[in-house]
Design a protein that fits this description.
Layout: H1 9-28, H2 30-42, H3 49-62, H4 64-67, H5 76-94, H6 98-117, H7 119-124, H8 126-131, H9 143-161, E1 166-168, E2 171-174, E3 177-180, H10 188-205, H11 209-240, H12 249-270, H13 297-309, H14 311-320, E4 341-342, E5 359-366, E6 371-378, E7 403-412, E8 420-428, E9 433-442, E10 445-447, H15 450-462, E11 469-478, H16 484-497
C-alpha cells in the first residue's frame, strides 16, 4: 500500500547532522523561536508561519529524485556566514530588535544546513531553504505606506470617476458618507499571502530562476495594485447603495473574494510559461560512484554546535555589564531665565502613552501666548518595553476621540551645530487640533530615524556608556489647517530646552 523509502547511505550522516543542528538551534535560541511562535498564535496576519517549514520540506520532497545522487560535503563558506548571522543576532539582541534577531536566527539555521550539505546540494535546494525566511513575521513596517497608498489610490479613482471627495489624511468624505483607511485596509495580509503562494507556485511550475523571480515580483506588485482597486470597489459599492452594502462583514468577504480571483488570474497567466519537471538524475556509473564517506564530519559538527552556543552567553555577559540609566536629565527643561514658564496642565484630553517605560516626566510651559506640553520617557535597559517600537503610537487604533491626520518629517534646531529631523504629526478631535513633534535622544544625539537610533543604541551599549536613551514628545494646540504658528512655537520651545 505504501512504498518504503530507502535512504541512500551517503545521505545518512548529512541528514543526521541536519536534524542535530535543527534541534540545537531550537534549543539554544528557544526564546527567539518562542517570540515567533507567539506572533503566529496572536496575529491572523502571520498564522502562515506554522506551515512554512512543512511546505519547505514538501517542496524538497517533490524533487527528491533530482537530489538522490548528489554528494553532500561540508562547506567552510556556510560556516563563516553562519557566524556572521550569529553576530547579527547578538547585535540585534543587545538593542532588542526582534525582527532582526528572527531573520538572523533563520539565517543561522539555513547556513547550518549549507555547512553540512555543501555548496552543490545547497544550490539545488536553495529555493526551499530561502522559503524558510517566510517564518519570520515581518511586514508591520510596511503598513503605514500601504495605508497612504490605498487612500491616495481610492481618492484618485473616485475623482477620475467624477465623484466629489474631500480628503484629510487617511480620512475622506463623500456625499453619501465618511470613510477612513485603517490597518486592515492596508492590504498587508493580501500581500503576505500572495508572496507565500507565489513562491510555492514559482518553484513547482518553473525551473528557470528568471521565471521564478518574475513571478515572485508579480506576486508582490499585483496585490498592492489590486488592493487599491479592492478598496475603491468597496467604497463605490457603499456609495451607490447609500451606505447599505460593504460597510460590515460583507466588506471583508468582498475583499477576500476579489483577492482570490486576482490570484487565480495571476497563476493562470503564469501557466503559459510553465516549465516541464526536470528529469530525475541518473544513477552514476561505476567510474562515478558516490562516496559513502563524509570527511571531517565530526569536526564540522562540533564547530557548528559551538558557533550556535557561543552567542547567548556572550549576550548575557554584555547585558550584565550595561549601566542602566533611569534619569530624566534636568537640562531638557527650559532655563529659569527663559521666556517659557511652568504652568498647570491644561484640559486637552490627550497625553502620550507608551508601553514599558521605566521613568517618565510630563511638564507644561507657557510663553504668555500659548502652552506647550512636554513628555519625556526613559525605557532604561528595555527590560519592560522598547524605546523604538511600532506600538509606541500617539493615538491607538481603538481611540474614539483622537485620530492622526498627518505625519511628516521636519528639521528642528536640537543641536548647537546642526538641525535634526523630527517626526511631526497632526492629531484631531471634535474640539481641537494638536501639533506634535516627536524624536529620540541617545546621549547627546537627536534623531527620529528608527534605524539610526538603533545604531546609536548599539554603539552606546558596546561602549558601556551610561547615557540615557529618551523618547521626547512636544505638543501644542493649533487651528485646524493652520499649523505655521504652532510649528514655530514648538520649534522655539525646542531651541530653549533641547539644544543643549
Amino acid at each position: 500500500m505504501f512504498k518504503a523509502v530507502q535512504l541512500p547511505v551517503h545521505w545518512q550522516k548529512p541528514l543526521f547532522g541536519v536534524l542535530l543542528i535543527t534541534l540545537a538551534n531550537l534549543g539554544v535560541f528557544r526564546e527567539t523561536w518562542g517570540s515567533m511562535l507567539s506572533t503566529w498564535l496572536g496575529s491572523e496576519t502571520f498564522t502562515h508561519g506554522f506551515v512554512v517549514a512543512p511546505i519547505s520540506l514538501w517542496l524538497i520532497w517533490t524533487r527528491r529524485d533530482q537530489f538522490r545522487y548528489l554528494q553532500p560535503e561540508n562547506s567552510l563558506l556556510g560556516l563563516i556566514i553562519m557566524l556572521l548571522c550569529g553576530l547579527l543576532w547578538l547585535s540585534a539582541n543587545l538593542i532588542h530588535t526582534l525582527i532582526i534577531q528572527q531573520f538572523a536566527l533563520v539565517g543561522m539555521l539555513v547556513c547550518g544546513f549549507w555547512t553540512i550539505l555543501g555548496n552543490k546540494v545547497t544550490v539545488n535546494v536553495l529555493f526551499p531553504l530561502m522559503f524558510l525566511f517566510l517564518m519570520v513575521p515581518f511586514g508591520d513596517e510596511f503598513v503605514p505606506p500601504l495605508m497612504e497608498y490605498t487612500a491616495t489610490f481610492v481618492v484618485a479613482m473616485l475623482r477620475l470617476t467624477g465623484i466629489s471627495v474631500y480628503r484629510e489624511g487617511l480620512h475622506f468624505t463623500l456625499t453619501s458618507g465618511n470613510w477612513s483607511v485603517i490597518e486592515a485596509c492596508s492590504g498587508i495580509r493580501y500581500l503576505i499571502a500572495s508572496i507565500t503562494l507565489g513562491m510555492v507556485y514559482a518553484y513547482l511550475n518553473y525551473s528557470n530562476y528568471k521565471k521564478r523571480l518574475a513571478l515572485i515580483v508579480a506576486a508582490v506588485l499585483v496585490p498592492i495594485l489590486a488592493n487599491g482597486f479592492r478598496a475603491y470597489m468597496i467604497v463605490m459599492i457603499g456609495h451607490l447603495s447609500d451606505m447599505q452594502l460593504a460597510t460590515g462583514i460583507d466588506h471583508i468577504i468582498y475583499g477576500w473574494v476579489f483577492f482570490g480571483l486576482v490570484m487565480l488570474l495571476l497563476f493562470y497567466i503564469g501557466s503559459f510559461w510553465h516549465d516541464p519537471i526536470p528529469p530525475a538524475m541518473a544513477v552514476p556509473d561505476a567510474g562515478g560512484e558516490i562516496s559513502k564517506n563524509y570527511p571531517h564530519y565530526w569536526p564540522i559538527m562540533l564547530a557548528l554546535l559551538l558557533g550556535l552556543w557561543i552567542w547567548t552567553p556572550t549576550s548575557a555577559w554584555l547585558t550584565a555589564r550595561q549601566a542602566e540609566s533611569l534619569e530624566i536629565p534636568d537640562y531638557l527643561l527650559p532655563a529659569l531665565d527663559s521666556q517659557w514658564q511652568a504652568v498647570a496642565a491644561p484640559n486637552w484630553n490627550w497625553e502620550p502613552k507608551f508601553k514599558g517605560e521605566t521613568a517618565e516626566t510630563q511638564h507644561f510651559f507657557s510663553n504668555g501666548q500659548t502652552i506647550v506640553g512636554m513628555t519625556v520617557a526613559n525605557f532604561g535597559a528595555e527590560t519592560q518595553g522598547e524605546l523604538v517600537n511600532s506600538q509606541n503610537v500617539l493615538v491607538s487604533a481603538k481611540n474614539k476621540i483622537w485620530s492622526v491626520m498627518h505625519d511628516s518629517r521636519i528639521p528642528v534646531n536640537l543641536s548647537d551645530t546642526k538641525q535634526a529631523m523630527v517626526e511631526e504629526s497632526v492629531l484631531r478631535s471634535a474640539e481641537t487640533d494638536l501639533l506634535v513633534l516627536r524624536w529620540y535622544r541617545i546621549g547627546g544625539r537627536n534623531s527620529a530615524n528608527n534605524y539610526f537610533v538603533k545604531w546609536l543604541q548599539l554603539v552606546k551599549r558596546l561602549s558601556f556608556d551610561a547615557a540615557p536613551e529618551l523618547l521626547i514628545v512636544l505638543y501644542t494646540p493649533s487651528e485646524p489647517g493652520e499649523y505655521r504658528q504652532a510649528r514655530e512655537n514648538l520649534q522655539n520651545f525646542a531651541a530653549a530646552c533641547c539644544a543643549r
